[in-house]
Amino acid sequence: MTDERIDVGALTRCDARFARDCYHWFFFAQPDKPERALNADPDAPIWRPWAPDLRGEPIESGQHVAEENPAALTGALLRFLSPA
Question: Do 26 and 54 reside in the same domain of the chain?
Answer without folding.
Answer: no
